[in-house]
Amino acid sequence: MLGIIATTLGADRTLAAGAAIAAPCRALALAANRTADAGAALQACLDATPAGGRIELAPGRYRLATPVRLDHPLTLTTRGTTPDAPACSSDERRCALLHLAIAAAPARPTAGAVMPFEVASDRVRIDRLVFVGTRRSDPALSARRCASDAERPLGGGLRVNGDAIAITRSVFRDMACYSALEYGRGAGAVIRDNDFTANGTHTAALRWADGLTIHDVTGFQVTANRFRDNTDVQLILGGCVGCTITDNRFDHGGTAAGGSFAELMLQAWPNATSGDFTGTSTADNRIDCGARRRCGFGLMIGSAPWYAAPAFGGTVTRNRVRGAMLALNVDSLTGAMTIADNDLAPASGTWPSACGPQRTARAAANVSPASRAFLAPASIPAGATARRYCILNHPGPAPAPLPPTAAP
Fold it and tell me: DSSP letters along 276-302, please?
């Protein structure tokens, strides 16, 4: 059974939260674990629930064949969620699962690409839900959609814009391409204790996917999330002022298809985001790409070698990187940044790159010549090389991968 709770109704946890709410939300409750499209029912339930309300979905699978848009403040969660309930990754069967299986690209009169699930409001909370794409459930649709510039965002998951949003204890997995969670603009959001897993396919052109893409925001907390086998950049930001990016874990399962170009990237999209990380602490993150070195760059600071764009501000400290082809690459800063006390494992080998094989000999860090003017001597790791790298963990000289998910 699905529960609807409006803040004006106190502790009432029954479905009958007013006839106007009950009817559309009852239809959604009946859509669980069926093959029919639950997208229209979910949209109707969202629209009928007043601002400040709460929708609790019963555990089970809800197939969304039509895109959904949430445009006012409310909480969307799994029924019976308590503050001490474990994240959905501990047992997905205890959570509501939204299968983002959009059947056809919708006609949209306004400009902008469509993603399967859009949040366009302040003060939304998404807690203890599982979002699953079509990477495994419909490989043919995934391949066709990801090959299309117009439809590629439909191969992703959620797009979010708004202030004071919380996304917690949820799972984002098996998106075909683009990004599992794309956050455009906002302030004061919390993204904590989520799993971003198996999004995209690294070995298939145009089918890469970021785990979490953040464009230009302020005051975010991105903490204690787990990133595994996201196949473009696992976590990428285009500007984040006064943010906390801490205690996140990054790893890979060992297959080439689950590899990435980079794990954690601070940069900007040209003419789209600021690259401003003033007041941001990127600290105590743990990266392990495994014995087979399934990631190119561990920490990637700056927009090169993809494109030229600004990057400056903040501190990058106490991060640990293992198993990367290159643990830290700084290229290119355009302003001051503090980079210190990171635990970077060196690597030796010949690595595939977008411009052909590139060799390193016990290299842990690289700081490009243009970046060195913006770093204090103590911020340049001992033994760091000073060169320009091509995109690592790329199959070779061929059309380079798309820039990490472009700004909306």
Answer: B-TT-EEES-EEE-TTTT-EEEEEEES
Residue 326 lies in domain: 177-408
Domain boundary among 157, 187, 215: 157
Name the band, by pLDDT with cuts 50, 70 and 90, for residue 4: very low
Same domain, 307 and 389: yes
Give this prediction's pTM.
Answer: 0.94
Two tokens, residue 181: 């969670």
Residues 64-95: tens digit of each pLDDT: 999 999 999 999 999 999 999 999 999 999 99
User: Mean pLDDT of all residues in the chain?
Assistant: 92
Tens digits of residue pLDDT in 326-385? 999 999 999 999 999 999 999 999 999 999 999 999 999 999 999 999 999 989 999 999
Instruction: Specify whether the CB–CB gap between 7 and 53 falls below 8 A.
Output: yes
CB under 8 Å to 187, separation ≥6 — which residues?
163, 164, 217, 218, 219, 220
Burial of 261 (0-12, 13-18, 19+ CB in 10 A): buried
Claim to verify: residue 19 and residue 88 sit in the same structural domain: yes
Q: What DSSP string describes 217-228?
A: EES-EEES-EEE
Residue 167 included in any domain = no
Give per-residue pLDDT as tens, 10-29: 233 333 344 556 788 988 98
For residue 276, the one-letter residue type is D
Sign of dihedral through CA atoms 392, 142, 130, 100?
positive
Domain match, 78 and 17 both? yes
Answer yes or no: do 134 and 208 share one domain.
Answer: no
What is the C-alpha to C-alpha distance for residues 119 and 174, in angstroms, rounded to an integer?
20
The reply to whether 143 and 206 lie within a common domain is: no
Do 153 and 188 fall within a single domain?
A: no
143 & 44 share domain: yes
Please give the tally of structural domains in the chain. Answer: 2
* Chain segment 172-194, per-residue pLDDT in tens: 999 999 999 999 999 999 999 99
Kindly state whether residues 262 and 192 are assigned to the same domain: yes
**Alpha-helical segments (H) within 173-301:** none
With vertex at residue 363, the alpha carbon angle to CA 359 and CA 364, rounded to the nearest 5 degrees, is: 135
CA trace torsion 312, 316, 321, 325 (10° rounding): 20
Are 94 and 88 contacting, i.e. CB atoms less than 8 angstroms apart?
A: yes
